[in-house]
Write a sequence for this structure.
């Protein structure tokens, strides 16, 4: 790579690179020198670019933080650019600024690229530097044809076009005879389908309408359309989706179906008003629902076997849990496809109906006319169903009817929003599910997340520099460096390093011993501990398994991992005086049903060398008081099973526990509430939004007062 030689020399002079690598190191690589050296672990890419930018007095741009694209240039200039040459030189023009065109290069010393750009653009040029993979990702997203861009820049406002036969025709087949807005709609759908996007976002701005795709769960800016065409484009889409084009003040929903390269795609459209105009989001739903089966969903053999056994029975409730966008609906449809054998009456109650499947009786919830989940379920139970799918259990009434339906012999499938499988039990109890009924009807809980799958075309073993950076994490989770992979990014994955997504799953089967714990209102910690002895695999363990098998990268799953139980080896410390070895950590009992708040507070107090004991409700908290004898208690006010007031009353009524200081936690920060709690025996009162420093100060003050009181006695 002759153009790279001056750059390599400069990197060595700046002491960013220790020595020039051999020519063999680049023999089979397509990356430029900086990116290649970074992937080989020879330098830090960001540091190298920043040093180069400083030395060359050149601006370093983070392209992910910028929305300007090549389409912002004058259309006449775009027609003079050769995209293949831009790809080969790893360069991209961004915008015109103060009469000069801002161009970004991965190699600032590639003078051939600069000469080509200067000749093609015939305008003053300002050169900047950016990361190579972000430049290539930006080029891959410049997919709108220059001819359409030129027409958009120069055409006057167009009248909305009535529903066209192009919806039935294949949108991937170009037809220059179609009106401009129709061709633009077709191209947006075609590009989104080819890039395997799950959503299209049309977002109004001050002077442009941004087109963004969600690819593998991550938003990507694609291009921008002049604002004068916003109304025409939105109107065209509203007509196709069956919306009222005259209504611009209220949100609207609609559906349409298109053909792209022979594939039928159902599209769910949602339009809502915003400050800059109407925003529209289009959810792409592949019409081929046969793809969603138990064999293809991604379950492990053990989970698939257990789920099949659950689906073969009746009089049970099977829950799928996870946050929005984790694939819960897809998993439910895989269950329905498995159950659909022509001999069963299967009814679904959804909001909205995602996929339309022949042979199922699918009912759309409509809150506007009081057609709620609960109302529809009452009617469904009189229609002799064998299996019922409820889109989501959202309220007490729906939970009660779902459990009653399971108890009376129906197989009920539904979803919840919880962080893990055991938490679904507590969530149902919060919705007033009776423990004995829940223990008798709940068959199992599937918890899931979606992570990006590493691109098979550019995957490579993790370099030494990456392994060193993640050394503590690798040791904590007992990973082998040889199993870890990274990806450099290629055209196949649009230079993101990932292509497609895979599910990570955790399945909690409600066995008789676990059913007994639910009946006895046992803590989630006890349920989790017992389940693990019976083979339960958490989401964290499943994520680590996906990394070990090379399906994804460690960076992709870090957000789903539990805090490591294996701590790094402690460094040798000087021998402490003998009296220090007798010191013990002060114990704080944290009684709080919200796992996120518990995790945050536990981290705050652990840093101050307190020993934190956790309980999820007042009843469990009382047991922990007798078991651990804490020096101080932080207690939530609103909790299931036993709330904070009852816990405080029982604590103060007992001779052994009445003197333990208690600080109440609550979101109801009012003077009346504070006085009432102090009257019940609380020592202090803090809001959950209180800063950690203030929280620690209150704890220390309460402990000091307690110790002073003991000394006085």
């Amino acid at each position: 790579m002759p153009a790279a030689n001056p750059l390599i020399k400069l990197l060595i002079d700046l002491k960013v690179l220790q020595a020039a690598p051999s020519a063999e190191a680049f023999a089979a690589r397509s990356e430029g020198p900086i990116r290649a050296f970074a992937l080989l672990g020879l330098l830090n890419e960001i540091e190298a670019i920043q040093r180069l930018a400083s030395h060359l007095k050149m601006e370093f741009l983070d392209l992910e933080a910028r929305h300007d694209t090549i389409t912002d240039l004058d259309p006449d200039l775009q027609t003079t650019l050769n995209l293949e040459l831009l790809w080969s030189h790893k360069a991209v023009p961004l915008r015109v600024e103060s009469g000069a065109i801002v161009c970004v290069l991965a190699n600032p010393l590639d003078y051939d690229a600069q000469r080509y750009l200067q000749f093609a653009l015939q305008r003053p040029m300002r050169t900047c530097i950016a990361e190579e993979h972000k430049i290539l990702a930006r080029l891959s997203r410049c997919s709108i044809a220059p001819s359409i861009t030129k027409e958009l820049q120069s055409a006057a406002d167009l009248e909305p076009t009535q529903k066209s036969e192009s919806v039935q025709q294949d949108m991937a087949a170009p037809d220059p005879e179609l009106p401009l807005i129709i061709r633009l709609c077709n191209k947006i759908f075609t590009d989104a389908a080819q890039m395997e996007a799950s959503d299209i976002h049309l977002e109004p701005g001050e002077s442009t309408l941004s087109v963004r795709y969600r690819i593998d769960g991550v938003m990507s800016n694609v291009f921008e359309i002049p604002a004068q065409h916003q109304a025409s484009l939105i109107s065209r889409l509203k007509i196709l989706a069956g919306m009222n084009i005259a209504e611009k003040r209220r949100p609207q929903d609609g559906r349409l179906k298109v053909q792209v390269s022979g594939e039928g795609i159902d599209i769910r459209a949602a339009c809502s008003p915003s400050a800059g105009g109407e925003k529209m989001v289009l959810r792409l739903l592949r019409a081929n629902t046969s793809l969603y089966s138990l064999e293809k969903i991604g379950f492990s053999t053990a989970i698939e076997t257990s789920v099949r056994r659950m689906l073969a029975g009746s009089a049970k409730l099977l829950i799928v849990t996870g946050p929005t966008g984790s694939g819960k609906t897809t998993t439910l449809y895989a269950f329905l496809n498995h159950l659909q054998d022509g001999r069963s009456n299967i009814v679904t109650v959804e909001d909205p109906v995602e996929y339309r499947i022949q042979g199922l009786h699918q009912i759309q919830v409509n809150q506007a006319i009081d057609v709620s989940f609960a109302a529809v379920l009452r009617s469904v139970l009189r229609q002799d169903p064998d299996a019922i799918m409820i889109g989501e259990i959202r309220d007490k009434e729906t939970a009660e009817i779902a459990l009653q339906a399971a108890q009376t012999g129906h197989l009920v499938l539904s979803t919840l929003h919880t962080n893990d499988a055991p938490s679904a039990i507590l969530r149902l109890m919060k919705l007033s599910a009776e423990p004995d009924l829940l223990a008798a009807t709940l068959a199992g809980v599937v918890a899931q997340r979606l992570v990006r799958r590493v691109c098979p075309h550019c995957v490579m073993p993790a370099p030494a520099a990456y392994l060193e950076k993640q050394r503590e994490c690798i040791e904590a989770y007992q990973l082998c460096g040889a199993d870890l992979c990274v990806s450099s990014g290629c055209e196949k994955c649009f230079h993101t390093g990932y292509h497609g997504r895979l599910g990570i799953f955790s399945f909690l089967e409600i066995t008789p011993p676990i059913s007994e714990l639910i009946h006895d209102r046992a803590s989630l910690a006890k349920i989790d501990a017992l389940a693990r002895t019976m083979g339960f695999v958490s989401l964290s363990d499943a994520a680590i398994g996906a990394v070990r098998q090379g399906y994804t990268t460690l960076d992709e799953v870090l957000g789903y991992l539990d805090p490591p139980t294996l701590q790094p080896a402690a460094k040798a410390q000087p021998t402490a005086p003998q009296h220090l070895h007798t010191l013990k950590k002060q114990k704080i009992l944290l009684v709080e049903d919200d796992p996120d708040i518990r995790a945050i507070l536990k981290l705050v107090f652990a840093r101050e060398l307190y020993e934190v004991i956790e309980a999820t409700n007042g009843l469990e908290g009382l047991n922990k008081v007798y078991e651990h004898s804490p020096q101080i208690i932080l207690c939530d006010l609103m909790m299931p099973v036993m709330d904070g007031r009852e816990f405080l009353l029982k604590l103060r009524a007992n001779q052994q526990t009445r003197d333990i200081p208690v600080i109440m936690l609550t979101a109801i920060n009012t003077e009346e509430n504070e006085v009432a709690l102090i009257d019940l025996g609380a020592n202090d009162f803090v809001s959950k939004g209180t800063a950690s420093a203030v929280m620690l100060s209150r704890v220390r003050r309460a402990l000091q007062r307690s110790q002073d009181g003991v000394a006085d006695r």
